[in-house]
Each structure stands twice: as structure tokens, then as C-alpha cells.
Write a structure and sequence with these properties.
By secondary structure, the protein is mostly helical. It is built from 7 helices and no strands. One of its GO terms (cellular component) is endoplasmic reticulum membrane.
């Protein structure tokens, strides 16, 4: 299981990821009339040359749909279970019933965190591969991106590979 410091990190990661999913990523799957943060996403596209969010390929639509339908509720659940874990640790003492609850909570949480980590890391890896092999400027001319601009865009995506990937090894 994760250390207490890592649990705190992932607790805040999941809380922050709720907002990222709702405000940014959901733009890919929502009809335009529901895209209240479109100006924010358009700024990100222009600033980082994010041709994936500009183009919205069908495979990305499916990835984001899975994120919104499967992962988003999971972010709430993960945050809840991490807090439950902390509460159980503070009251466990010698009570065997509490220790059993703690072990069950850790087992369940670990399994679902690994599943999330595998899903999020693998889909983000595909995005990174696409940026590296197919990157272009989304301003209409379809010019190939310079390596420096590819690396800049990849730097936006890399945390969403590495942070979940770490969960595969708990």
C-alpha cells in the first residue's frame, strides 16, 4: 500500500483531477452547447499547440468517455476511501474488527488504484506516442511541429502517465 505521504499526494491528485476532467477533458465528449469552459480549452490548444484536443480523434473521444463515465466517479470514490483508510488507521488500536476493516479497505483500494493506473497510463501513453509521431500545429496549415513544441506538449501529458503508472506498482 502507499505510504501516508503518497496517500496524501494521491488524495489531492484525485480531488484536482475531478475538476480537470469536468472542466477540460469533458469538452471532447460534450455537445458544444454544454461546453462552458471552451475558452479555457481553446487557450490551452493555442498555447500548447494541443492538436489532439483541437482534432478530437474518435479514439480520443472513447478514451475521454471512459474517463468521464468510469474514472470520474472513481476519483470521488478514491478520495473517500483514502479518507476512510486514514480514519480507520487512527482508531484501529487493538480492535480486531477495525483491523479487518482496515485490511479490507486497503485491499479494495489497492486493486482499484492499480486498475485506474493501468487504464490512465496506457491511454496517456497512446496520446504521447501520437504527439511524438504525428504532432502538427492546429492553426489550419497542418505543419509538422518542431521537436521543442512536441516536447512542450508532451510535458503537459507526462504527469498523467507517470502519476497513474506509479499506482500499477502498489
Amino acid at each position: 500500500m502507499l505510504s501516508t505521504g503518497q496517500q496524501k499526494f494521491y488524495y489531492y491528485y484525485f480531488i484536482a483531477h475531478i475538476f480537470t476532467t469536468i472542466l477540460v477533458d469533458s469538452i471532447v465528449v460534450l455537445p458544444e452547447r454544454f461546453q462552458v469552459t471552451k475558452p479555457l480549452v481553446d487557450y490551452h490548444i493555442a498555447f500548447n499547440n494541443d492538436f489532439l484536443l483541437y482534432e478530437k480523434p474518435s479514439w480520443l473521444w472513447w478514451f475521454i468517455l471512459i474517463e468521464c463515465v468510469g474514472q470520474l466517479p472513481g476519483f470521488f470514490w478514491f478520495a473517500y476511501k483514502i479518507r476512510q483508510l486514514w480514519a480507520l488507521k487512527t482508531i484501529s488500536g487493538e480492535d480486531k474488527h477495525i483491523k479487518m476493516q482496515l485490511a479490507t479497505c486497503e485491499r479494495s483500494l489497492s486493486w482499484w488504484l492499480r486498475l485506474y493506473g493501468w487504464n490512465a497510463a496506457s491511454t496517456t501513453f497512446i496520446c504521447l506516442y501520437t504527439v511524438w509521431t504525428r504532432g502538427y500545429y492546429p492553426d489550419g496549415d497542418l505543419l509538422p511541429m518542431l521537436v521543442s513544441d512536441k516536447l512542450k506538449l508532451m510535458a503537459v501529458y507526462v504527469p498523467y502517465l507517470l502519476i497513474p503508472l506509479r499506482l500499477c506498482f502498489i
